[in-house]
Amino acid sequence: MTRFTVNNQPVEYRMDPRTPLLWALRDASNLTGTKYGCGTGDCGACAVDVDGGLRLACQETIGALEGTFVTTIEGLSKDRSHPVQQALLASNIVQCGYCIPGIVMAASVLLRSNRNPSEEDIKGAIPNICRCGIYPRLIGAITDAARSARGEPPLSADPQPETPAPEPEAPE
């Protein structure tokens, strides 16, 4: 038996300790927000927070997680009120959505440790593959999430400076 905490609830899995966390979450706990993508740790669809760090659930065995705290996309916020979730919704960048839970988890781990990440910080912290190609807009959305978490308005909501209309030329 393996015991740890998932989304602030103690769990005890009566499964082989070599079982990947991904399958324990999906099959035994019915937490299907953590997605199976590649099974090799390359795509990031299965990203979860383990004790404040990003982990790929397809690569972690439940036996290795004894006594840890695991947070999945379902445990991040019940009402999608986390700043990362809000920023992704507000920016309307989600397309198919398959990679989004892993991206949200990676971004939330980043923002917990770095409240003002640079573009390079964001690129380095998001290992996820998105087949829809949301990357250019994702940087802006995560930047907006960081601003929101700091209590600042998102850049996308900052008013653009108005350019005064040119004065009409007087007829000669």
From TrEMBL:
<keyword id="KW-0479">Metal-binding</keyword>
<keyword id="KW-0411">Iron-sulfur</keyword>
<protein>
    <submittedName>
        <fullName>(2Fe-2S)-binding protein</fullName>
    </submittedName>
</protein>
<dbReference type="InterPro" id="IPR051452">
    <property type="entry name" value="Diverse_Oxidoreductases"/>
</dbReference>
<dbReference type="Pfam" id="PF00111">
    <property type="entry name" value="Fer2"/>
</dbReference>
<dbReference type="GO" id="GO:0051537">
    <property type="term" value="F:2 iron, 2 sulfur cluster binding"/>
</dbReference>
<feature type="region of interest" description="Disordered">
    <location>
        <begin position="146"/>
        <end position="172"/>
    </location>
</feature>
<dbReference type="Pfam" id="PF01799">
    <property type="entry name" value="Fer2_2"/>
</dbReference>
<keyword id="KW-0560">Oxidoreductase</keyword>
<dbReference type="InterPro" id="IPR006058">
    <property type="entry name" value="2Fe2S_fd_BS"/>
</dbReference>
<dbReference type="InterPro" id="IPR002888">
    <property type="entry name" value="2Fe-2S-bd"/>
</dbReference>
<dbReference type="InterPro" id="IPR036010">
    <property type="entry name" value="2Fe-2S_ferredoxin-like_sf"/>
</dbReference>
<dbReference type="InterPro" id="IPR012675">
    <property type="entry name" value="Beta-grasp_dom_sf"/>
</dbReference>
<keyword id="KW-0001">2Fe-2S</keyword>
<feature type="compositionally biased region" description="Pro residues">
    <location>
        <begin position="161"/>
        <end position="172"/>
    </location>
</feature>
<dbReference type="InterPro" id="IPR001041">
    <property type="entry name" value="2Fe-2S_ferredoxin-type"/>
</dbReference>
<dbReference type="GO" id="GO:0046872">
    <property type="term" value="F:metal ion binding"/>
</dbReference>
<dbReference type="GO" id="GO:0016491">
    <property type="term" value="F:oxidoreductase activity"/>
</dbReference>
<dbReference type="InterPro" id="IPR036884">
    <property type="entry name" value="2Fe-2S-bd_dom_sf"/>
</dbReference>
<feature type="domain" description="2Fe-2S ferredoxin-type">
    <location>
        <begin position="1"/>
        <end position="76"/>
    </location>
</feature>
<keyword id="KW-0408">Iron</keyword>
